[in-house]
Amino acid sequence: MSTTTVRAVCPHDCPDTCALLVTVKDGVATEVKGDPDHPTTAGVLCTKVSRYTERTYHPDRLLHPMKRVGRKGEGKFERISWDEALGTIAARLKEIAARDPQAILPYSYAGTMGLVQGESMAARFLHKLGASLLDRTICATAGGTGYKYTIGARIGTDLEQFQNAKLILIWGGNPIASNLHFWTRAQEAKRRGAKLIAIDPYRSLTAEKCHQHIALLPGTDAALALGMMHVLIRDDLLDHDYIARHTLGFEQLKQRAEEWTPERVAGICGIAADEVEQLARLYGETAKRGEAVAIRTNYGLQRVHGGGMAVRNITCLPALVGAWRHAAGGVQLSSSDSFPRDFNALQRPELLPPGTRTINMSTIGDDLLREASADFGPRIEALIVYNSNPVAIAPQSAKVAQGFAREDLFTVVLEHFQTDTADYADIVLPATTQLEHVDAHSAYGHTYMMANNAAIAPLGEAKPNTEIFRLLAARMGFDDPCFKDSDDVIAASAFNGKDVRAIHFDWESLKRKGWQKLNLPDAPFAEGGFPTPSGKCEFFSERMQADGLDPLPSYIAPYESHATNPALAAKYPLAMISPPARNFLNSSFVNVQSLRHTEGEPHLDIHPDDAGARGIVAGDVVRIFNDRGSFVAKARVTDKARKGLVVGLSIWWKKLASDGKNANEVTSQRLTDMGGGPTFYDLLVQVERV
Ligand SMILES: Nc1nc2c(c(=O)[nH]1)N[C@H]1C(S)=C(S)[C@@H](COP(=O)(O)OP(=O)(O)OC[C@H]3O[C@@H](n4cnc5c(=O)[nH]c(N)nc54)[C@H](O)[C@@H]3O)O[C@H]1N2
Ligand SMILES: Nc1nc2c(c(=O)[nH]1)N[C@H]1C(S)=C(S)[C@@H](COP(=O)(O)OP(=O)(O)OC[C@H]3O[C@@H](n4cnc5c(=O)[nH]c(N)nc54)[C@H](O)[C@@H]3O)O[C@H]1N2
Ligand code: SF4
Ligand SMILES: [Mo]
To answer: Which of 124, 336, 452, 618 sits CB 3.0–4.6 Å from 637 for a disulfide?
Structure first.
């Protein structure tokens, strides 16, 4: 009997990108643990991934190619050979591409965050084919854009510094569920005397454990940040030296902030003026004492009309009080741009025909239903889906399903499981999991380059995404040598080793070690040096002006709220959000029984007053609806949801819910103010007992 330990990486869409140790006995992975030596993982995994072998060896794993034999969406398939699958796909793609390759669209996101199994060979193949480009907006582009306008890049406070902060604002995130290894640091800070404040409309698991919880209305964070600026400036809780040397547009900001009195802000946010005053004073006074004030802002606050502006306004705060001077101060949204990733080497953009159109993944429902036009280009005739489950996760799901159900649409899905999306495929191809393939990873919550070794052989006839696109390239007759690159060759090109940040990068040694920290300063902007056009933190942004946006921090109200649309609110009086459930990762893991049993079934958290007014008691089955659709859930009557708000933790597989639907039935395809992001948390609904 042989037992080995293999170094791997958690591939899931989570900021923590944990280092894994996989125990393999006679070719079978028996245990997945966190690497105790990796400083941010520190030997701890979330419940989901500590059960990873249950997912990998799940009896429902797709183990061979299949073709659809029933209606689209019905889920009836028949086993075929790889030869038949590849032959069918190549023939259809050739026929469509002969007319216009842009009628072919990839749909992919972060099912794996791997730089190799994500967009490397897949991108090369699709570029060479001339397929439409996909704008990958479904998660983070709104805030990412606001952050970059302000400080230039997605770089921020190092995760490994947060325990030294004296005040941490956890703004629009629920790290106990979705950023566990940040929560470890925040708790350590708490033990060392720091104050933790959660800013969240919902009393999440995290908000429950913070010293203070500010339960503002969804979509109003930009106003709260403006109110903080007002108080900081009015009470002179500022770092004048930092402002003078490292910021742009303070005088204009001062004028703007004057309009945002705590009373006005309180009215918009649905909180007390005192909460605004105290939050700003605590933030400013702690910084004035020379102590580190840190903000961990996350994704919850971005999924609304003004989500980009909200993140922009928050990103202005550290520069006002000089928080960046401390390694433990500042703000972190994402660490992605800390990594010198070499996307040209990975994706070969020169293969792409010039002028190729781009389609926004957040409006896939509408776009699948669009006819050809001069403005849109050709109708979408083929979809190649990998690393994503759009029928469950994309907004306004009824439209998405209607699009996927089109008889004239040719759909290929690369998957581990027969998801809601795979049910609509013409051909389903079995993909390997992280334990079965090689990959290189960056992260968006820490700054380690990571290597994933294959721990076990592919199960059944499963193949890595890369190999599937390699085989398709051969069938299509693509003969550029880049289509022969092995996964190791691709991984070795993932980081630019000439960049000073990645000077230690060498793929073979990274594979042996598993992880390697980037070479970065502890405090990224202690001496300014922001990667903006001016080199400063831009309170006034010429780029925003050029892009048709307000160049100064401002407030953009939700599309759907009592304040912005009273007529709609009369019909649908409750705001709804659907943030991640702790035991799922987006729609991944919903089919892992032990995890689904912990979540139970789809729930709706509703305030006792709102429940009472509708005759709803705990345990009732309720219908949640608006003009876009409806779904059912079991009511939990709780003041965790503020009055006027309902919360449905997500993202359920539609087919595992009693009515075959999930929260995306009621979400809309409207986009954020910047970055073309989705507005999953900007909607009004009504709720009734079934
Ligand atoms: N367990 C688990 N972990 C995950 C995921 C998962 O599905 N499950 N998903 C991963 C992915 S893809 C992402 S993007 C991240 C997302 O994780 P987070 O960044 O934490 O974002 P969300 O979970 O969307 O929302 C976090 C909190 O924001 C609150 N919120 C909603 N609307 C607003 C608002 O308008 N303002 C404010 N201030 N707060 C608001 C919600 O109530 C919620 O408690 O987590 C990743 N990690
Ligand atoms: N209502 C509502 N909707 C939301 C959100 C919300 O908070 N509320 N959150 C949004 C956010 S932040 C995001 S990021 C998106 C996430 O949406 P997606 O990126 O689609 O994430 P998942 O639902 O986890 O689906 C990923 C799929 O990829 C598959 N997969 C994993 N690894 C591989 C691989 O190596 N190869 C192949 N071929 N497949 C693989 C998994 O089996 C899984 O089915 O959802 C968005 N939708
Ligand atoms: S999902 Fe996040 S916390 Fe869980 S193992 Fe993966 S990276 Fe770590
Ligand atoms: Mo996300």
So the answer is: 618
* CB distance 239 to 287 below 8 Å: yes
12 lines ligand 3 (CB under 6 A): yes
Put residue 602 in one of left, alpha, beta given phi > 0 → left and psi -120 to 50 → alpha.
Answer: beta
User: Amino acid letter at 669?
Assistant: Q
Per-residue pLDDT tens over the stretch 223-263? 999 999 999 999 999 999 999 999 999 999 999 999 999 99
Report how far ligand 4's centroid is from the alpha carbon of 548 (Å).
27
Is 581 touching ligand 3 by the criterion CB < 6 Å?
Answer: no
Atom of ligand 2 lying closest to residue 414 CA: 38
pLDDT above 80 for 124? yes
- Residue of 302, 342, 360, 343 whose CA lies nearest to 136: 360
Residues 6+ apart with CB under 8 A from 172: 199, 200, 221, 297, 298, 299, 300, 301, 302, 310
Our answer on whether the CB atom of 650 is closer than 6 Å to any ligand 2 atom is yes
Q: Are 80 and 65 in contact (CB under 8 A)?
A: yes
Q: How much is the pLDDT for 6? A: 98
Name the percent of the chain lying above pLDDT 90.
99
Distance in Å, CA 255 to ligand 2 centroid: 43
**Residue range 541-554: average pLDDT?**
98
Backbone φ, ψ for residue 463 (5° rounding):
-135, 150
Mutation choice for ligand 1 from 108, 141, 176, 200, CB with most ligand atoms inside 8 A: 200
Angstrom distance (rounded) from CA 198 to CA 266: 17
Among the bound ligands, the one closest to the CA of 110: 2
pTM here is: 0.98
Return the ligand number nearest the Cα of 174.
1
**Terminal Cα-to-Cα distance of the chain (whole angstroms):** 57
Distance 12 CA to ligand 3 centre (A): 7
Q: Which residue has the tokens 């469509």?
A: 96
- CA nearest to 589, candidates 656, 659, 647: 656
CB distance 380 to ligand 3 below 6 Å: no
- How many CA atoms does the CB half-sphere of 189 hold within 13 Å? 31
Specify the pLDDT at position 657: 95
Nearest ligand 3 atom to alpha carbon 20: 5
Q: Which helix (H) or strand (E) holds 538?
A: strand 537-538
- CA 556/CA 317 separation, integer angstroms: 18
The amino acid occupying position 448 is Y
